[in-house]
Specification:
Blueprint: E1 15-19, H1 23-38, H2 51-57, E2 64-67, H3 83-93, E3 103-107, H4 115-126, E4 132-138, H5 146-150, E5 153-156, H6 166-181, H7 184-194, H8 199-217, H9 228-246, H10 251-261
Helix pairs in contact: 1-2, 3-4, 6-7, 6-8, 7-10, 8-9, 9-10
Bound molecules: zinc ion (ZN).
Length: 270
């Protein structure tokens, strides 16, 4: 086994916080770790071939349980993962695995656990039942309680956006630089000068800014004069822009939004 790392040997942390630039990337990593934990193949895990790996890949393995925000009766995602969901998970975690030797809970968008849900999970994260692991996915570890963070091993995953083209990277750093000056007029000029890019570039730019912010929040990149509050505000703003981008909002409108919403209070001054 010495030639394999811990996960490849099927041993994964009991409580692990997976931080990635996007929810998808974090989830992918969590799924791969979970598959390694349940894999019944010999050698490097996940083997990808055994019954457990195939079930994990099809997302139907009974010992890989995903916890996420529920939908309301209109089919809309609720705001939070609730304390009741966490209590259910605690009760379920005390039961033996169904098929595999281990049981894994993947908590998607862990930052959507409200504080009481996070508090309810503390003891479980600190002393999980034998053979049970919890993988918390997030794009922003800072949105979780410090007590939760301190009980988890942290894994940071780089995003695909890092191979993004030069223009997009330059745009993203120029934008953050303009924001960090705190000068509304300068930011407005920058936005007006760049709102002619196409929608693909604009979407890639938003992703890239998110990636840079995630790196800063995870401490992998210098903050460039932005405070934590700035970064959190900008992450939320990028989420909004990404949502607008998906419904084909014009690029000018997106940059207009950036011009007025990027600085604290600049959106509702006067
Ligand atoms: Zn396998």
């Amino acid at each position: 086994m010495a030639q394999f790392d811990r996960a490849e040997a099927g041993r994964i942390p009991h409580a692990c916080l997976i931080c990635a630039p996007t929810e998808e990337t974090a989830l992918q990593k969590a799924r791969s770790l979970a598959a390694a934990a349940v894999c019944s193949g010999t050698g490097k895990k996940p083997c990808g071939l055994c019954r457990d790996c195939r079930k994990a890949a099809a997302d139907v393995h009974p010992d890989i349980i995903t916890v996420r925000r529920l939908t309301d009766d209109k089919g809309k995602l609720r705001q939070n993962i609730t304390v009741d969901q966490v209590r259910e998970m605690i009760a379920d975690a005390s039961l033996l695995p169904n098929e595999a030797a281990q049981k894994v809970y993947i908590i998607r968008e862990a930052e959507t656990m409200n504080p009481s849900a996070q508090n309810a999970a503390l003891k479980l994260l600190e002393e999980p039942p034998a053979g049970v692991s919890f993988l918390l996915c997030t794009v922003n570890t800072q949105l979780l309680l410090a007590t939760v963070r301190s009980r988890c091993e942290q894994i940071t995953v780089a995003g695909e956006g890092e191979d993004g083209d030069e223009e997009v990277r330059a745009l993203a750093s120029a934008y953050l630089k303009a924001v960090s000056t705190g000068d509304a007029a300068q930011l407005l000029r920058w936005c007006a000068a760049n709102d002619g890019v196409d929608l693909r570039t604009a979407s890639a730019f938003i992703e890239q800014v998110r990636l840079l912010l995630a790196d800063m929040l995870c401490g992998r990149r210098k903050s460039g004069g932005l405070s934590k509050a700035d970064m959190l505000r900008l992450v939320a703003l990028m989420d909004r822009c990404a949502r607008y981008g998906k419904v084909n909002t014009g690029v000018r409108h997106l940059f207009g939004l950036l011009a007025v919403q990027s600085l604290p209070d600049s959106g509702n001054r006067g």
